[in-house]
TrEMBL record:
Coiled coil: none annotated. It is found in: Membrane. It is a multi-pass membrane protein. InterPro entries: Cit_transptr-like_dom, DASS-Related_Transporters, RCK_C, RCK_C_sf. The chain crosses the membrane at residues 6-22, 29-46, 52-71, 137-162, 182-203, 418-435, 441-458, 470-492, 512-534, 541-565, 585-607. Signal peptide: none annotated. It comes from the Bacteria. Residues 226-310, 317-402 form the RCK C-terminal domain. This is SLC13 family permease. Keywords: Membrane, Repeat, Transmembrane, Transmembrane helix, Transport. It comes from Noviluteimonas lactosilytica.
Amino acid sequence: MLTTDMKLVLGLVGFTMVMFLFERIRADVVALVVLVLLGLTGLVAPEDLFGGFSGNAVMSVIATMILGAGLDRTGALNRLAAWLLRRSKGVESRLLLLTQAIAGLNSSFMQNPSVMALYLPVTSRLSSRTGLPLSRFLLPLAVAIVMGGSLTMVGTSPLILLNDLLVSSNANLPSGAATLEPLHMFAPMPIGLALLGAGLLYFRYFGDKRLAQYDVDRGVTPARTQSYFARAYGIEGDVYELTVTADSPLVGMSLGEAEATRGSPLLLALKTGNESRLAPPADARIWVGSVIGAMGERQQVADFAQNNFLRMSTRLRTFGDLFNPSRAGIAEAVVPPTSQYLGKSQAELQLRKQYGISLLAVNRDKTVHRENVRQLPLRAGDMLVLHGIWQDLAQAAENKDFVVVTDYPKGEQRPHKFKLAIGIFAVTMLLALSTRIPVSIALMTGVAGMLVAGVLHIDEAYASINWKTVFVMACLIPLGWAMDSSGAAAWIAGHTIEQMPEDMPLPVLEIALGLLTTLFSLVIGHVGATIVMVPMGINLALAAGGNPTAFALMVALSASNNFMTASNPVMSMITGPAGYQPRDLWRLGAPLSLLYLIVVVIAVNIMF
């Protein structure tokens, strides 16, 4: 029979679902209201009410966000984009497969939205380099990230929450029931591998044909600078290193004189002696052994090298860090009417000497000026195409003499910390493997290591945390406790079993539980669905004679089974750039959700 506490808890669950569904109030505000009501009604004791904020689950989520930001600061994923292009050797299917597989593996130790945020510029770069529209990349990538998140217990918020919910449920188990133990770090790996493999095979043999209708790229994203600047300004090609030989006529010339020679590509960097510099000043001298960083089409650069007795290399051994897209790149900036640059040319302003920025082109009244651009007096409204280190660009923009309109990394990039960050991360994963050290402590050890080593500054660590996600999770965790302790979860499970035919096979019951969890996740998100449904899954298993841990794991995995709506944070991040419409997500995502559920049910039953 329903008690008053059960009615109150079920009423709060209904309230949460309605508020999340209509989105009239922000999700974090709704979560706070639910937390306050749990306290006012006495459903959760005052001393436990704010326990969600200090729980292992919340601390693990915070740690994974910071670790992801640390890896991003080193430009690790930009290096990965270049590696993917090299390994695919221009084969579209191989490129898609490699990108999915690597992203899926990355999502096993980082929060899914964080992985997608890091991979959006990577896929933009791959798209612009290959000519494939973003719509062909982003859905397979999102699916791989969601499925790969089930490889470890820290890959998704539902799995991070699961262990805390398993432990808290022990207090309300019937007498004689076995205590539920937390799952170790890599417990779900067989399921995750099966899911990731199924996703890769789906797009390899079937899904890619369904994506073919999106060959016209409807998406626009600021990160796709390379294709944009090639189209708008004729600035295209790759960067090459040119080493000056003793026979070169450039020896003794200034960089400005070299740029004025016939057929010269864009000269963006220079190394003389031990000093490497991006956007060197025009009066910098070129000597024997100097290395020039030149940008242009391969044939143009090769002709320039041959005519001037330069050794050409396609590998960036000298300027690899300088030309890392996370550290430097091309941007557009407009000259405002109040600028002090009006009437002055680049030669007078000496942008390269003052700020380390190269002016590549000027767009004036829809006419692009690239020849003799250094001598062109600037006017209000001119659109400047600049190349330089992002930090230098941000410093130059502080004077308000031009306004940068291209999105670019505002924070300091630290590619020289790459090996250190990877080492710290490897040690973190090894600690997480230990059964003696809780995962939250292992992850926080990695955070402390990155802060001490200077991979991240503490303010950057704070900024990397999505506090809305943390707040929603911490506020809703007590709702799961109340579902369990009030007996509401057991009551629903008992009545569910009574309504079902006798001797129903457990896999059928698991499929029904998975479908119900998926429906909940469409309404209240994956965190809310996990918190509400895990206690119900455990009680359902106990009533049906199943394995409570298996049912709870089924719920946690099914909570992420949403490829159909933007309520999944990963899906919401790809709809804009790829140009997917809501009906597209339902048409493409529904078969994937069905495949996901079938694989999970089979894999969980094999494991347990």
